[in-house]
């Protein structure tokens, strides 16, 4: 097994639409039979304190009682873009080989499925393919819709904007309750992802609930993976040679990268370490005296009860 290789980055997390990937001019991928392919395994780690989450005042958005089932007890819904384990394992990060133009076939395609559940889009990060389907399902008794964009440092472009049907199995009062926790799937919505040439970043938001967002990277070859709960990934059947492995996360300005050598039928290990950014990262954060600023009464605030999950900044 190849020696473990480490890389450190000082990449700064900035505005979400500043995702520079330098993908223009990439040639078409050629599927071939890989002989004596190797395997790349590894772990992505976040070093330092995990950044604070985004904060949204639920009383200023629709369905505050139902969506407030997940909140901080003071009327705020938190969105943590950084899914990090107890030991720094960086979950939900895309790992891929850069500029590989020939290799194993893509294999059977299964459209990625994103669920609107408990007023969240899950998973937060995934991988899509250009000119292929993505499936979105509403698991809530609340109205959601999809506003999907492709984006880059040049700004966003709308891909599609459609509502998400609610299941007819829900009782009428379910969407008004902080104590209704069952989930029924509405009719799945299938859309084709059609990216502009050179763009690879896909983002989806709910038009009603600003704290619902999901991100994806468009794969132009099959050597992509999303890190698991241990921050681990594996890429298999790689033609022998020297490559650059990169990671991508929607709030990283520059991807972390490392040169790796894949030996015939060999296994190479790599650890990618990301320095945690500091300072304010988002426009949406909890503010002082929110009920004075937003003119929210104590009665309205008291109805927002975290009966499913009480969130914390720590």
Give an account of the 3D structure.
This protein has helices at 64-67, 290-293, 298-302; strands at 5-9, 30-31, 38-47, 54-57, 70-71, 76-79, 83-84, 90-91, 94-97, 102-103, 113-116, 121-122, 125-128, 132-138, 144-151, 157-164, 189-193, 201-205, 213-218, 224-226, 232-238, 241-248, 257-262, 267-275, 309-310. By secondary structure, the protein is mostly beta strands. A hairpin with an 8-residue loop joins strand 22 (241-248) and strand 23 (257-262). The longest helix is centred in the C-terminal third of the chain and has 5 residues, at 298-302. It is globular and about 65 Å long.
Largest sheet: 5 strands, mixed
Counting H and I runs of at least 4 residues, what is the number of helices? 3
Task: List the strand order in the largest sheet.
Answer: 13-19-18-15-16
Q: What is the overall silhouette? A: globular
Brief write-up:
The protein has three helices and 25 strands. The protein is mainly beta and 314 residues long. Strand 7 and strand 8 (90-91) form a beta hairpin.
Layout: helices, strands, pairs:
Blueprint (H helix, E strand, L loop, with lengths): L4 E5 L20 E2 L6 E10 L6 E4 L6 H4 L2 E2 L4 E4 L3 E2 L5 E2 L2 E4 L4 E2 L9 E4 L4 E2 L2 E4 L3 E7 L5 E8 L5 E8 L24 E5 L7 E5 L7 E6 L5 E3 L5 E7 L2 E8 L8 E6 L4 E9 L14 H4 L4 H5 L6 E2 L4
